[in-house]
Amino acid sequence: MKINRRKFIKNALTGGLVIGSAFLTGCSEISRTAENSIHDLEKKFTSDLNAKFLRQIISADNSTARCIMWQADSKLNFPKVEVKLKNSDATEIFDAQESFFAEDNEEILQYTAQIKNLKPSSEYQYRILDGEHCTEFYDLKTSTDKKFKAIIFPDSQSADYKVWGGVAKVAFEKNPDAEFFVNVGDIVDNGEDTSQWHAWFNQVDAQLKKLPFVPVMGNHETYNRAWQVRQPVAYLNYFAVPENGVKNFSRRFYSFDFGAAHFVILDSQWEELGKEIIEVQKNWLREDLAKTAKSWKIAFIHKDVLQYRINGRPERLEGFSDVGENFMPLFEDLNFDVVFTAHLHTYRNRGRLKNFQADETGPLYILTGLSGDVRYSNLWINHKLDKVIAPQPEIDNYLTLEVDDKILSVKCFLHDGSQIDESILRL
């Protein structure tokens, strides 16, 4: 439900005063009384509400909508989100829904609000309300059809999330114009460990409040504390991503629009969770791409498309993974421009590939690297399709993606902000 709070209060107060007191006062006095009552109501709000892990989640159309999520230490009575255009007093209020779930022997008291009917290319502010209590206001910016920048983080799984926090800090400081950010799976090391999720959230707390986040599920999101595979309960509950319309695989894969680009987030965890999803995703992907008229098509999938030889394992041959064998032909048929992968904790630019070989008419394939503290030093033997390889042994990195209606640019930076690679595509 959406309400213009200021307009509603003013109309209600003014209407009541006109009915009961019109013979005593003129219209100007009524107006002043109504305005004073509004100010009195606003003074009742106390900025002491703690919305833990407050975050913006990407929506299907980010020019008009956004998802707001947060957690609370105790159950809220009247959870709502108040939204206003920046430098405006007119506000709208959106109801928040309880999205509680149980995980790691703990009940997570969580709330979700879907913010809709926003104006494109606009700067907003929002805050959380609960009765007379509120948070401060935070920024929310809707997308445009013009140029935008995003930050891409590879696997952030960690033993200590301070390294991840350091990489993220540099990336955001160097790119204050970024409009959203992505994590390409293995967000945490153990998907059931609540303390790891809290550590991850805390390291990017300021950015999650003001920039939409794009999560990609990795295999580590499917592990329980005993390191056995199970459904990714925390991942699927923490991130209310756009629905895909596939009943048995809700939120496992999804798509969204931002500027001149259509993004697809795919699930590569069929070894862990069952192979049925392969054909389901292929069919969904064809249908999804048939609906978009965006200039650029970009895919994210956690596991990589190539298979590497491994030091100490001579039986393992160079080639293509089952992810590559299943999806690379489809990426080509559907005219994807870029495919981002992760999982191997190394940055590799393969250039453009088609029919399983170098071809400038195929998609650009980027293996994104690592942004946590789990390193596989000297594990992988270089693949013949690798064009650019990060300095060895592996160190942390992040990427930027810049897109307008004619040019797409991908840059890779080491943890200190020094650039090591750039790819440019033109329509």
Description:
The protein has 9 helices and 30 strands. It has helices spanning 5-21, 27-43, 162-174, 194-203, 205-210, 233-238, 270-273, 276-290, 322-333, and strands at residues 2-3, 52-57, 66-71, 79-85, 91-95, 97-98, 101-103, 106-108, 110-115, 123-130, 133-134, 138-141, 148-153, 180-183, 212-215, 254-258, 261-266, 296-301, 306-307, 309-310, 319-320, 338-341, 347-354, 357-358, 364-368, 380-381, 388-389, 397-403, 407-414, 419-426. The strands form 6 sheets. The protein has a 10-stranded mixed sheet with strand order 6-9-3-2-15-14-13-28-29-30. Strands 16, 17, 18, 22, 23, 24, 25 and 27 form an 8-stranded mixed sheet that branches. It starts with a strand and ends with a strand. The model is unreliable at 1-43 (pLDDT under 50).
